[in-house]
Amino acid sequence: MFKKILSSIGIGSAKIDLVLDREVVTMGDILGGKLLVTGGATEQKIGNITVDLRVDSSYVSNDQTRSYEKSVTSVKISDEFTIGAGEKREFPFTCQVPEFIAMSSVTTRYYFLTNLDIQAGLDSKDRDFVQVLPSGLMKNFVEGFKALGCVPKLEGFNGTYQIIDFRPTTWLAGKLDELVFSFQPGLSNREIVGYFEIDKKTSGIGGWLADEMDLDEKKGAFRFTSDQLQTVEQAQTTIRVCV
User: Of 94, 111, 133, which residue constitutes the final position of a domain?
Assistant: First the structure.
């Protein structure tokens, strides 16, 4: 009886562990693994087991840092069952990573959240992080910046736009204060579309005047078609022309 009371408050209760085949995936990949459930000190009834792939990010809006977190897909592992004290159960796990979502970057992270619904007790949770790499047009778009020597300095995702502030290391190095591209991952199946902002580095009285009059800034909308992003080399050319 005492063990059941402890289990009801999470002491000596059943535990879960999601074991993934790998920790780096590409959008559209099918990821496999297994879910291990270990019984606690007493027999317990387990409700549905679900695993959610969640995105967690932050972004700046109106000079305030805001957070964004959401489930992008969910996998049901099992229906209700009873697990005995110390019993071990294993369930296969398979999840297809959605396409056309924000990629993992400086701030944007993905993790699998596994929830073990323990009836008449505290639920057990497990969190496993994965890196989600881009595919298709988004991959060529990002690789185009990388080939030009631009690396993400700051980044965020607000649920619609992924905003990346690049730091030039070769091309345009020392000439820009900011190179920011915001794009919609949800539209990347056919094009990369969004907004850009370029802030040139200035100095002296002329630079001060340019800053005051915003003459050192260039901003606008962009739309890169599938033809413009067919290869990384074409993506490089397209980005150069835009900037």
Answer: 133
